[in-house]
Specification:
This protein has 184 residues and is α+β, with helices and mostly antiparallel strands. It has four helices and seven strands, in the order αβαββαββββα. The chain is 28% helix and 17% strand. The relative contact order is 0.21. It is a single-pass type I membrane protein. Pfam families: Cu_bind_like.
Length: 184
């Protein structure tokens, strides 16, 4: 009876640790390119389902760029009026804690005006996923359409779905415990 009770305790512990974080995703902003000039962040965010609890990871050269969390007005004007929302580590994680629109810009020189800005919409955890957008997206007004015969751009990858080392450790520990019970 003791091995069965031990197995049940291990399974409960695994579920208690793994279940709350299983729904959250990590998104490396800009995919492999990270947070830098020349990346189309509107295109990168397109089709992603950002939810409360997810994390945005901004990876960038902190001697050349910053991340400023701004409001919609500051986003449109490319200014960061609240210096307390300025991130400068080069590897910043932001947990999305509330639903709604979120705006981020680079506050260095004219980087925001050159496209180094991101706006996303965060859904509540229980909200239905938004309908997927067609790929490739139609060109926005004022931009050129792709020329015939050229390949459509491929979506960039992100860190969404990465398994944390803690979660891996817990699953390995659970598997070892189950193996011990079976072998007894």
């Amino acid at each position: 009876m003791a091995p069965t009770a031990f197995l049940i305790a291990v399974i409960v512990a695994i579920l208690a640790i793994a279940a709350p974080s299983a729904a959250a995703s990590n998104y490396t902003v800009g995919g492999d390119a990270g947070w830098m000039l020349g990346v189309n962040y509107t295109q990168w965010a397109q089709g992603k389902d950002f939810r409360v609890g997810d994390k945005l990871v901004f990876k960038y050269n902190n001697t050349a760029h910053t991340v400023a969390k701004v409001n919609g007005s500051d986003f449109q004007q490319c200014v960061a009026s609240n210096a307390s929302n300025l991130l400068t580590s080069g590897n910043d994680e932001i947990t999305l804690s509330a639903p709604g629109k979120k705006w981020y810009i680079c506050n260095v020189a004219d980087h925001c005006a050159k496209g180094m800005k991101l706006v996303i919409t965060v859904s509540a955890v229980g909200a239905p996923a938004p309908a997927p957008l067609p790929w490739p997206a139609p060109p926005t007004p004022g931009t050129a359409a792709p020329t015939p015969g050229t390949a459509a751009p491929t979506p960039s990858t992100s860190a969404a779905g990465e398994v944390s080392p803690l979660k891996s450790y817990v699953w390995i520990l659970g598997a070892l415990a189950a193996l011990k019970v079976i072998m007894v």
